[in-house]
Amino acid sequence: MTSTESAQKAPAKDPWDLPDVSGLVVGVLGGTGDQGRGLAYRLARAGQKVIIGSRAAERAEAAAAGIGHGVQGLDNGECARRSDIVIVAVPWDGHAKTLEGLREELTGKLVVDCVNPLGFDKKGAYALKPEEGSAAEQAAALLPESRVTAAFHHLSAVLLQDESVEEIDTDVMVLGESRADTDVVQALAARVPGMRGVFAGRLRNAHQVESLVANLISVNRRYKAHAGLRVTDV
């Protein structure tokens, strides 16, 4: 049997056969903001080792103390150095500058960008389109030696931080160029009770995922809700 025939007969990989990520250290850049603090809390509560980063170590330490669950606070550079996976949850207007300043520290790291480029006016939230196409593609351009993925865009910071909420009932759309990397991010999402990571394409498809947050903001305002997403039939 030729190698080609062998490959053709090999069974397809189970898409839900995900790696064990429980031993990985997760860093959250922008961990003092609502979204970053909420993600750090949920992952740490699930038993993940979490470090939050900020431009000022003192701010990170104070936020970490408020989160508890063993979360550590460090400056952004040290947070990136000590983490296996780094979630980028900084404000859009500081996205490029933050990543440019951490290129060396993020070399070789699995980076998960969850930043949503949005504008706001009297009509509400609307999507912005970066020159690179999306925040995730901007991150990939700025961090050529990192493994950039995109995920965690559609989560309510209010629900993430609410200690009375036991489960976060939502799917997390995960995008990236490497299946091994997106599998890791899907597995990380699944650490949070009620949450599931679903592969949603390569980074070139990140813009519409990021943009959908503007629609969810409109949903939430109309219905006084904290809406998330569920993908059916998978």
Main features:
234 residues, alpha/beta, Rossmann fold, eight-stranded mixed sheet, two-stranded antiparallel sheet, 20% strand, globular
Write structural notes for this entry.
By secondary structure, the chain is an alpha/beta fold. The protein has one domain (21-223): 3-Layer(aba) Sandwich (Rossmann fold). The chain is 37% helix and 20% strand. It is built from 9 helices and 10 strands. Strands 3-2-1-4-5-8-9-10 form an 8-stranded mixed beta sheet. Strands 6-7 form a two-stranded antiparallel sheet. Strand 6 (118-121) and strand 7 (124-127) form a beta hairpin. Helix 5 (95-101) runs parallel beside helix 6 (135-142). It is globular, with a radius of gyration of 18 Å. It starts with a helix and ends in an 11-residue tail after the last helix.
In short:
This protein is 37% helix and 20% strand. It has 234 residues and is α/β, with parallel strands linked by helices.
